[in-house]
Structures are given as structure tokens and as C-alpha cells.
Amino acid sequence: MTVQIITIDGPSGSGKGTLAAKLAEHYQFHLLDSGALYRLLGLSLRNKQLLDQLDTQLEQCVHIASQLNIQFLTTEQGIKVLLDNEDVSQEIRTEEVGAFASKVAAVPEFRAALLQRQRNFAQAPGLVADGRDMATSIFPEAQAKIYLTASAQSRAERRVNQLQAMGLDVKISDILANIIARDKRDMEREVAPLKPADDAYIIDSSELNIDEVFKLMTTYVDQQLAK
Ligand code: DC
């Protein structure tokens, strides 16, 4: 039986995570949050005081990447993420860990070390994979490829709302600067840069709410999966 794959790529704050989870629930597919893998790797290397030694300790760091002890547990409150059996669900969502992730994600050896782990998520009946290079490098065979984007300003506003809901005190100017810097790094890196696949369906969510984006996505995905 073929495993049906839906990819959602795009910059941070475009709403990918929320929509990927909604699509996975709607189609009863598995879910891969690939950004979480880079966040977990960044956090693990920081905890081992290796994040500033990537150049000199690369071999050891790549070994750690290939052996990462992580679990994604589905709970009533959502997905719980464990690193070395410790719940880091909240910690990996911070801006700080986002910056660690962006740093490790630019290193080709880490991307290679995480490749097979990502492909292993493709299990019957299907998978919704959320990231930056899901359609362009990890699952080029996907039946449905979505590229979800939004203006930097609207992404910054959404991020501020999310962080404030977590009880964090943040300034929009800082968040906007982070978003612009991270976009630049993600789009300009040599390996697997953020860009739409040639056959991707592109959605700009700047002026749309979640339900409107979800409707566009399911209309497209239904067509693709029926082919
Ligand atoms: O989607 P996110 O914000 O959790 O991603 C964290 C970082 O990891 C971000 O800088 C981009 C990078 N990333 C990547 O390079 N490739 C992916 N497939 C997913 C995330």
C-alpha cells in the first residue's frame, strides 16, 4: 500500500505547525514536525556545551545527531516532546532554542544525519510533514506539496501573541528582527534552502485566518490524493 504524503514547507510563523496538526487529524495521518528535530539537536548540543564547538568537534556532534534519544508522545494536551527522557516540549519552542536550531540546520552533516529519521515517519496510511525542505529534499515523491508563507510583519504579530499566551514578555521589534534574520539564513544556506518545490501549491496566509487556509489546503489535498 502506498503511503500518502502531504508536505507543508514555509518560513517560521506562517502557521505551518497548527495547520499540519489539523491536516493530520483530518486525514488521520501521522505527523512529522521536522523543525522540532533541529530544535532538539540544537538543545542537546547546547546542553553538552558543544554548540560553540561545531567546527572543531564536528564528528562528535554528528554522532550525537545520529543517536539523538527523542520521543514524540501524543497526549490529551497535545504532543509531548522528550529529549533523553526529559519533557522539553516548552523549552524547544523558545526563541533561544529556535536560534540554536537555525544554526545546526545550516550544517550539511547534521541534515544528512537526520534524513533517514525523517523518512521513517512515512508510515501507512499517510504522513503530514512540516518543515523547510520536506518537498524539495526529504519527500520529493509526496502527492501533495504545500508552501505556506506570510509577510514578516504578520508572522511577527502571530509569534508575539503565541509567546504572550505562554506568559513571556516580548517586543515585536525584536521578534520581527529575529524572523528576518532567520528567513535570510534559511533561504540563503547552501544546503536545502527554504524555497517552494516547482510543483508546490503556494498559499500566502497574511490576510487569511486558520479556517480559511485549512479550507484551501483540504480542497487542494483532496484533489491530489484522488489522482
Ligand atoms: O519550523 P521551526 O521554527 O521549528 O524550525 C526551526 C529551525 O530549523 C529553523 O531555523 C529552520 C530549521 N529547519 C530546517 O532547516 N529544515 C526543516 N525541515 C525544518 C526546520
From TrEMBL:
Localisation per UniProt entry: Cytoplasm
Main location per the UniProt record: cytoplasm
Protein EC: 2.7.4.25
One Gene Ontology cellular component annotation held by this UniProt entry: cytosol
InterPro entries in UniProt: Cytidylate_kin (IPR003136), Cytidylate_kinase_dom (IPR011994), P-loop_NTPase (IPR027417)
Catalysed transformations (reactions): CMP + ATP = CDP + ADP; dCMP + ATP = dCDP + ADP
Pfam families: Cytidylate_kin
Protein keywords: ATP-binding, Cytoplasm, Kinase, Nucleotide-binding, Transferase
A biological-process GO annotation: pyrimidine nucleotide metabolic process
EC main group: transferase
Location of the Cytidylate kinase domain: 6-222
Annotated GO MF terms: ATP binding; dCMP kinase activity
Residues reported to bind ATP: G10, P11, S12, G13, S14, G15, K16, G17, T18
Keyword Signal: no
Record flagged with keyword Metal-binding: no
Family according to the record: Belongs to the cytidylate kinase family. Type 1 subfamily.
Designated name of the protein: Cytidylate kinase
Phylogenetic placement of the source organism: Bacteria, Pseudomonadati, Pseudomonadota, Gammaproteobacteria, Moraxellales
